[in-house]
Amino acid sequence: MTTLPAPTPRPALPHMLRPSVIAGDFAYLILGLPLGIASFTVAVTGVSLAAGLLITLVGIPILMLTLLACRGFAAVERVRAALVLGEPVAAPERQWKRDTVWETTKAVLGDPGGWRDLLWSVVLMPVGIATFTIAVTAWTTALGLLTSPIWYWALPEDNEVHAALFESTAPGYSILRVAIGLALVPVAIAICRGVAQGQAKATAFAIGRQS
Hints:
The chain is mostly helical. The protein has one domain. Helix content is about 70%, strand content about 0%. The chain starts with 18 loop residues before the first helix and ends with a helix. The relative contact order is 0.16.
């Protein structure tokens, strides 16, 4: 009886080239902008309102609610960072609930981790703007050139960019644009992977469990 040789397993794609990783990095960077806007708005509005009403003592519960909201944003950010890093980002240990309202208030307002969450909620918006811009620019440039033969004919003739590569619809230039776009795809993948990992590690350092 003839024994057939075992099939050679296909080599696995490098981690950063897996479609799920590419899509995950892009989604992580894109979603940082709306989440950053939301967290920034809540944090700045809450702190401003609490400061203005502090003299009436109404500002204290508003500040507590703001810190609790920022704690929620921080929890979301830790989950998002864990998906990028491939490992969980531990939350700081907190015991805000106390026997009395006053003790609970002191625990919330005196928790350094809560203030880190608030600060990160403010920082997340400019970070989100930067990462959103990087991800969109990298991929639109690569995919725009790669697919240029499909849509390039529709560009207006009064294009302000005066260069044959970006003006001519000749087959040679079309092939060159596609080749450049194809070469930029791995560049876009590497850029998004590096930026996503950098932001995720910064998140873990800023609002993760401190060693």
